[in-house]
Amino acid sequence: MANRTVKDAHSVKGTNPQYLVEKIIRTRIYECRYWKEECFALTAALIVDKAMELKYIGGVFGGNIKPVPFLCLLLKMLQIQPEKDIIVEFIKNEDFKYVRALGAIYMRLTGTSTDCYKYLEPLYYDYRKLKRMDRNGAFHIVHMDEFIDELLREERVCDIILPRIQKRHVLEETNVLEPRVSAIEEDIEDVESEQEEDDFAKELKKAAPPPERKPKRPSPSHTRRPTSPHRKESKRHRSPGKRRSRSRERAEKRHRSPEHKHRDEDRHKRSSKKSRHDRDGERERHRSRHGGKDRHHREKDKDQKSHRDDRRDRAKEERKEKSRSSTDQEIREANEMRARLGLAPLRP
User: Fold this and answer.
1) In whole angstroms, how far apart are CA 9 and each of 45, 78, 130, 161, 207?
2) Who contacts 320 (Cβ-Cβ below 8 Å, separation ≥6)?
3) What pLDDT is stored for residue 319 in this prediction?
4) In terms of Cα–Cα distance, which of 54, 118, 60 is closest to 91?
5) For residue 184, which of 130, 125, 142 has the smallest C-alpha distance?
6) Least crowded by CB within 10 Å, which of 51, 150, 239, 280?
7) In Å, how far are 22, 42, 71, 121, 294 from 111, measured between CA atoms?
């Protein structure tokens, strides 16, 4: 009784809605634990909450063919057959992407050709990432627009054979659907219009006469002053004594013997060792007098410890506030979705 379709359900594609899923996969779903525990006695109002808990999409996996929760909820929707308005709200929902994916695949299974193109083609502009589980149980990233393209073009998605629909060009020829304009064509048109405007602006610049240039006046800094003969004589008859003394000092520094260098280095090391030793001795004497660390260092350690404790407490409070705000936001979004569907809120 729990696995039967509801009495007032309409036939889809001339058959029982549950028969759209293959028998072997359907029996595996009936035997799995998620179906028995989570999908038992689900209604159209309660299936919304289960759909918001989905974390990935997929079909069956493993050697013994286990179904994923996404496939179990899809079969449950085929069994209870919710109203079309609920499915449309699933597809239009922007907060929960897996709810949108569930509504899209259900519309592809049960909807007409015009409904599939009408409600699924706007989802080409949704580029969010979805997690998909493959046959080996490994996860892969797929985007929402890729998933919608598979629903409209492929024969099998999530291990379910999709019913055939009419080609889009046939519906366009019969004036059932308007010709679709993709976003890429719109972008190409925008780019072409921008290029035409740039070309027109360049032609206008070329056609315009060049502006007249005013002759530059020589700046006063560029004017040369006549050099006096006294200055020339002073440059020529400059005494080379200072130059020679400096050059001698540089040569002495360069050609200093390595023995002098080693002596200077040894003196520097001894002086640094002595100063370091004296400093260490003073610190040890100070610590022995005042019992280890002095008062200043002890107060500094206490302040640092209290500061660390305050930072730790602040971080804990911030984490708690973030978790509360995230849960409140999820509850608010779920209540908004339930309100659009005409259902009672989860919490006041």
Assistant:
1) 17, 9, 31, 21, 75
2) none
3) 83
4) 118
5) 125
6) 239
7) 18, 22, 18, 14, 83
By C-alpha distance, which of 84, 102, 88 is closest to 148? 102
51-57-60 Cα angle (round to 5): 115
- Residue 326 Cα distances to 8, 52, 62, 256, angstroms: 40, 15, 34, 75
pLDDT < 50: residue spans in the chain: 230-243, 292
CA distance 52 to 333: 10
The pLDDT value given to residue 233: 46
Listed in sequence order, the residues at least 6 apart from 106 whose beta carbon sits closer than 8 Å to its beta carbon are 74, 77, 78, 87, 90
Helix axes 113-120, 84-92, angle to 10 degrees: 30
Tell me whether strands 129-133 and 57-58 are parallel, antiparallel or unpaired: parallel
> Which residue is listed with tokens 């759209």?
20
Tokens of 29: 């779903």
Six-digit token pair at 265?
């280095």
* CA angle in degrees (0–180, nearest 5) for 31-33-34: 110
Identify the pLDDT of residue 268.
59
In residues, how long is the chain? 348
Q: Which two tokens stand for residue 281?
A: 């001795």
Q: Which residue has the tokens 């699933």?
A: 90
Spatial neighbors of 70 by CB under 8 A, at least 6 apart, are 54, 56, 57, 58, 98, 101, 102, 158
In the chain, DSSP assigns E strands to 57-58, 60-61, 66-67, 129-133, 139-143, 156-157, 160-161
The residue type at 9: A
In DSSP terms, which residues pair with 133 in a beta bridge?
58, 139
Work out the widest C-alpha separation in the chain, in whole angstroms: 123
Question: What burial class does residue 239 get, using C-beta atoms within 10 Å of its C-beta: 0-12 exposed, 13-18 middle, 19+ buried?
Answer: exposed
